[in-house]
Specification:
It is a single chain. It contains no helices and 23 strands. The chain has 162 residues and is an all-beta fold. It has one domain: UDP N-Acetylglucosamine Acyltransferase, domain 1, CATH 2.160.10.10. It starts with a strand and ends with a strand.
C-alpha cells in the first residue's frame, strides 16, 4: 500500500489513491474514486463513487464529497463543508439529474460552507466559513455570506489584497 489508512477506514479496492495520501479514522471511500498523491482525508469523511480529488488536497473532518464533485490540486476543504449534486432532491427519484461541482486549483473552502450544484469555484478563491455558494466564484475572489457575495480579492496564499 502506497498510502496510509487508519484501521477503521473503509476503502474500496477499486478506488485509485495516490502515494503519500493519509486516510484517517472512520473514513469511507467508495469504488470509482480518484484521489491524488499527498492528500489528507480527515476523520469521518465520505468520498462517494465518481468523485475526483487532485494532488495535495486536504479534506477536514466530517466532509462528504459526492459523485460529480471534482477538487483540483491543492484544494483545502474545511470541516463540515457540504457539497450538493442534485438541484431538486427527492427520496426515490429515479429521474434525478447529477449537476457537477468543480473547485479549481488552490481554492479554500471555509468550515460549514455549502456549495450548491452546478457551481465552479475559481483558482485560489476563498469561500468564507458558513457561506452558501449559489453561483460561480471567480479565481482569486473572496466570497462570504448567504448567498455568498464577493467581498475582496485573495493572494495566491489566501490573504486579502487590494
Amino acid at each position: 500500500m502506497r498510502y496510509q489508512k487508519h484501521s477503521t477506514a473503509i476503502v474500496s479496492d477499486e478506488a485509485v489513491i495516490g502515494e503519500g495520501t493519509r486516510i484517517w479514522a472512520f473514513v469511507n471511500i467508495q469504488s470509482n474514486v480518484k484521489i491524488g498523491a499527498n492528500c489528507n482525508i480527515c476523520d469521518c469523511s465520505f468520498i462517494e463513487r465518481g468523485a475526483s480529488l487532485g494532488n495535495g488536497v486536504t479534506i477536514k473532518n466530517g466532509v462528504s464529497v459526492f459523485e460529480g464533485v471534482t477538487l483540483e490540486d491543492d484544494v483545502f476543504v474545511g470541516p463540515n463543508v457540504t457539497f450538493v449534486n442534485d438541484r431538486y432532491p427527492r427520496s426515490h427519484n429515479a429521474n434525478w439529474k447529477l449537476e457537477a461541482v468543480v473547485v479549481r486549483k488552490g481554492a479554500s473552502l471555509g468550515a460549514n460552507a455549502t456549495i450548491l450544484c452546478g457551481v465552479e469555484i475559481g483558482e485560489y478563491a476563498v469561500v468564507g466559513a458558513g457561506s452558501v455558494v449559489t453561483k460561480n466564484v471567480p479565481s482569486y475572489a473572496i466570497v462570504a455570506g448567504n448567498p455568498a457575495r464577493q467581498i475582496g480579492k485573495a493572494s495566491r496564499e489566501g490573504t486579502p489584497h487590494a
